[in-house]
């Protein structure tokens, strides 16, 4: 069925298609990019730019709202839904530890004082008391706030979610 000529034709077809692909890539790079001269020897600069009418550098920066203001308007009901992410490792019952310490009455509690839980020691170096501000920093980026902590969670990026969660935790046991 397959003789030498058929195999040669198939291989020639693939080689021809690859050659067309390489020539198309070369033509596109020649049209849209050029090597810069002068002070930019060896650098590749964009040769053709489509003006979209937007100035990328003119993006206004959003003013960061202080956490205290966000926390004052926090909704504990929404925080309860966010706590579902924490349930895998933490419990809300007093004295019931899981992979992480229990969070009953955690807001205002001294750091590292959950009964029966062996802490890594990194938390006590980061803060003394779990104030809403300390919890906010820790929940945003646990590894960045307390390097060496055993908490493997990557953190909550949204400040409103963190404030709602802290308001919920403050309502539990307080």
TrEMBL record:
Every Cytochrome c domain range: 74-173
A single MF term (Gene Ontology): electron transfer activity
Keywords from the named record: Electron transport, Heme, Iron, Metal-binding, Transport
KW Iron (keyword) present: yes
SUPFAM superfamilies: Cytochrome c
InterPro entries, per database record: Cyt_c-like_dom, Cyt_c-like_dom_sf, Cyt_c_1A/1B
Protein name, as recorded: Cytochrome c
């Amino acid at each position: 069925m397959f003789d030498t000529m058929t195999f040669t034709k198939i291989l020639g077809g693939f080689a021809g298609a690859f050659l067309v692909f390489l020539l198309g890539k070369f033509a596109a790079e020649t049209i849209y990019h050029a090597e810069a001269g002068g002070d930019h020897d060896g650098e590749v600069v964009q040769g053709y730019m489509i003006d979209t009418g937007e100035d990328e550098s003119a993006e206004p920066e959003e003013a960061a709202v202080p956490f205290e203001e966000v926390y004052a308007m926090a909704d504990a009901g929404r925080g309860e839904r966010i706590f579902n992410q924490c349930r895998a490792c933490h419990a809300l019952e007093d004295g019931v530890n899981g992979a992480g310490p229990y969070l009953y009455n955690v807001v205002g509690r001294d750091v590292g004082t959950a009964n029966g839980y062996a802490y890594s020691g990194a938390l006590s170096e980061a803060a003394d008391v779990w104030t809403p501000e300390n919890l906010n920093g820790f929940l945003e980026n646990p590894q960045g706030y307390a390097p060496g902590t055993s908490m493997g969670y990557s953190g909550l990026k949204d400040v409103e979610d963190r404030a709602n969660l802290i308001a919920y935790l403050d309502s539990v046991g307080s």
